[in-house]
Every structure is written in C-alpha cells, then in structure tokens.
TrEMBL record:
One of its GO terms (cellular component) is cytosol. Residues 312-395 form the PUA domain. Its EC number is 2.7.2.11. PANTHER family: GLUTAMATE 5-KINASE (PTHR43654), ISOPENTENYL PHOSPHATE KINASE (PTHR43654:SF1). One of its GO terms (biological process) is L-proline biosynthetic process. Keywords: Amino-acid biosynthesis, ATP-binding, Cytoplasm, Kinase, Nucleotide-binding, Proline biosynthesis, Transferase. SMART domains: PUA. This is Glutamate 5-kinase. It catalyses: L-glutamate + ATP = L-glutamyl 5-phosphate + ADP. Substrate binds at S89, D176, N188. InterPro entries: AceGlu_kinase-like_sf, Asp/Glu/Uridylate_kinase, G5K_ProB, Glu/AcGlu_kinase, Glu_5kinase, Glu_5kinase/COase_Synthase, Glutamate_5-kinase_CS, PUA. It comes from Gulosibacter macacae.
Length: 420
C-alpha cells in the first residue's frame, strides 16, 4: 500500500474538537466515562468484513491458515450466543491463479470467470472450517440490482433473518460473476455497511491489513493510530490511501465511507487488522473505534440513500428544492422542470436542481412516460384535465430521503481523490 495515492479527507463540516494531533489521539476525546468498545462486547448481532488482502498470500492464492484463524475466532463468538454475519472478499483473488492467470483480471468477463471459480473454493473452505465447530453456513451473493426493487431488498432481509434464527452464519459477497461495472457495489466495505444496516446489526467490524486509522500514512515516521473517532469530522483532514492492495478493490477511503454509512444509522464500527480480531472481541484497545450516532435511520430510508440504484432523475426548480429541503414537502408536478431516464412506478429516482445538485432520493409514483404532460402544472389544473388519479404527489415525502453531504464524499481533482 506504500505506493497508493494519498487522499486528503477535507472537512465538509466544522471540527468538533479542534485539530486532530498525534498528542490528542492517545486518549478518547471527550464525553465517555466508560470504554465505548464495551458496545462490541455486548453486541448481540455483529457483521464482520474481511478483505482480499487479509485472505490471500503474496502469490495471490487463498491463504487458508488465515481464513481458518478467522473462523476459529468467529466460532467462539457465535458460541457466546452472538449472531455473526461474515462479509468476505476473495473470490476473484482465489480464482484467477487456478485459471492460469498471473495477475488479477481487469476486464469484466475474465473477472467474472475468476469469481465463479474462486467463490466455490472460498465457500468450500469456509464450510469445512465452520463445520469443525458444527456451525452451518449459508452463502448469500448480492448484486446492486438486488437493492433496486424494494421487494428484492425485503427478500434479502428475510433470508438473513431466517438463517440467523436457524443458527447459521450467513457468508456474504458481491456476486462478481454476475455484477457489471455499471451496476455494482464496487467494494465489500460499502456492502458490509449496507448489510449491517439491512439486518440492524449492533456493530460492524472491518478487518484489513492495517491496524486502524492513523493520523498520517502508517509508513510515515511518527504516524500514530487514532483509537477513537466520536465524529467523522474529527478526522476530516487525515491523509489516507485511496487504493487497497494488489488483491483488493478498496483502500482506507472506502473503510471511512463504510464507517460513516454505518455510524449515521446508529451502528458503531471497529476498524482493525485481521490478526487482531480475537483481541477486538475481547475488548482490547486495538484498531479505531467509530462511535455511532444516537439515532438509527429507518431501513427504508437507508435503502433509498445508500443502496438503491437510481433509475432516473427529476430536475426541479428552486422553489421545489426549497420546499423539499426546508419543509420536508412532497414533490409535486408543478415544481418539476424535466425528467431524465426510463423508469416505472415504484422505481427509485434522484431529485436534482437545474444546476445538477442532488437533493433527495425517492420512489416515483408514476411511470416516466406519464410525466411529460404533467410537468409544471398545478394540482387544480391536473385535476380538471385528468381527474383525481393525477393529483397525487410525484414523490411522496414518506417515500423520500434527503441526500446528506458527508465528510467522505470523494471527487477527483488533478488525478488525486479528495473529499468535498
């Protein structure tokens, strides 16, 4: 990771505790009279994510001893009465060398082939490892398309719940053999946060090859681990790497994005080295603990904000934008200037201003083909021409979530990733 490009997480919000300095990181910041890591000890339902870099050897093959060590710990955790969901990377990494390839494929078709071969090997190894403890496992492969429709989203919830009720460990991966570059989660860090939200986990543990978040790149002399993050804005100026290892798709920036997604919905996150997973579940001071916000967002709102792939756009005028932001209003036809995309009733759509600024995600109450004749017209006008059937809101406020700016919103400037 030493050659990965640096990423500056520039603060979109004011700092809560002033500048983050090495001297201030040795102790929790403020506001905690107890060890916040006790939340992990007391968690009933935990999602654990392990990355490709922690599961592959230097030559790219699956690191079976490392996988079994992880399972040893998770089996002990499950034996304590906790429900464990494992989000695992490694299918492409486990599959490309058996196919005779000397490096991770970059084209979609070859990556899908490697994933198909590697996923079988990965699950077989997990099945054997958990089987030694008489713990059944269930494979759940997800694509971003599975989160587009609410019905499929709810089916996923039901599958997780039933597996956990039956004492199994769900093992989750993105379905790389079917996913396309146009419609995919992109990395399992984000997928892990979405799974944690979906099943209402009590904690999320992100396992990687670095022991937590540091106040500078870990390879830099004097870099210190940040043990506790109470607010994401507290680490807004920390320099991190934007790319993972040669066998992974993520980097520290995706870990922070995952932590932000989870903590916003009331789920604390521990980021630590895979080798420290046992100590982490013992409550030791390892890695970086991200404190959860006080309130959870509803799963429906979470699905709309983070998981649903937008199928179209509704471009609104300034009056409608203010009504949505300031009053929490529903979106009516009168405020829509134009539509983009082809969608049907029940599809998730993005609501943007004429300047292209994203305002909200919501569920359309109409097909795209029904809307052109309605745009810019008042409810009374629509009632006179079409009757009551066309008076309902285009997107009702109960089916809408405002898009929040976050500390880890990333864009590219001069080839380097930075945050807004």
């Amino acid at each position: 990771m030493a050659n990965a490009p640096a990423t500056a997480i520039h603060g979109a919000y004011p700092r809560h505790n002033g500048l983050v300095t090495s001297a201030s990181l040795s102790q929790p910041t403020t506001g905690h009279s107890r060890n916040p890591r006790a939340d992990l000890l007391g968690a009933r339902r935990v999602v654990v994510k392990i990355g490709s870099s922690s599961l592959t050897r230097a030559d790219g093959r699956l690191n079976v001893p490392a996988l079994r060590k992880l399972v040893d710990v998770l089996a002990e955790v499950a034996g304590q009465g906790k429900q464990v969901v494992l989000v695992t990377s490694g299918s492409i990494s486990a599959g490309f060398m058996p196919l005779g390839l000397d490096r991770r494929p970059t084209d979609v078709a070859t990556a899908q082939a490697a994933a198909a071969v590697g996923q079988s090997a990965l699950m077989s190894t997990y099945t054997d490892a958990f089987g030694a403890y008489d713990i059944p496992v269930g494979q759940i492969l997800i694509t971003a398309a599975d989160t587009v429709r609410r019905s499929r989203y709810h089916h996923a919830v039901q599958a997780f719940e039933r597996l956990l009720e039956l004492g199994a460990v769900p093992i989750v991966n993105e379905n790389d053999a079917l996913a396309t570059s146009e419609l995919r989660f992109g990395d399992n860090d984000r997928l892990a946060a979405l799974v944690a939200q979906l099943i209402r986990a009590d904690a999320l543990v992100l396992l990687t090859d670095v022991d937590g978040l540091y106040d500078a790149p870990p390879s830099q002399v004097g870099a210190q681990r940040i043990p506790l993050v109470e607010h994401m804005a507290d680490v807004a100026d920390v320099e991190v790497t934007g790319r993972g290892s040669s066998f992974g798709t993520g980097g520290m920036i995706t870990k922070l994005q995952s932590a932000e997604m989870a903590t916003q919905t009331g789920i604390p996150v521990l980021l630590t080295q895979a080798a420290n997973v046992g100590r982490a579940f013992a409550g030791d001071d390892v890695g970086t603990w991200f404190v959860a916000s006080a309130n959870r967002t509803s799963r429906r709102k979470v699905w709309l904000e983070h998981a649903a792939a937008m199928t179209g756009r509704l471009v609104v005028d300034e009056g409608a934008a203010r009504a949505l932001r300031d009053r929490g209003a529903s979106l009516l036809a009168a405020g829509i200037r134009r539509i983009e995309g082809d969608f049907v009733t029940g599809d998730p759509v993005e609501i943007i201003t004429e300047r292209g600024e994203s305002i909200a995600h919501g569920i359309s109450a109409y097909d795209a083909g029904e809307l052109p004749q309605m745009l810019g017209r008042s409810s009374d006008d629509l009632r006179d021409e079409f009757g009551e059937s066309r008076v309902r809101a285009i997107v009702h406020r109960d089916d809408m979530v405002l898009v929040r700016a976050t500390v880890t919103d990333v864009h590219s400037v001069g080839g380097m990733q930075v945050a807004d």
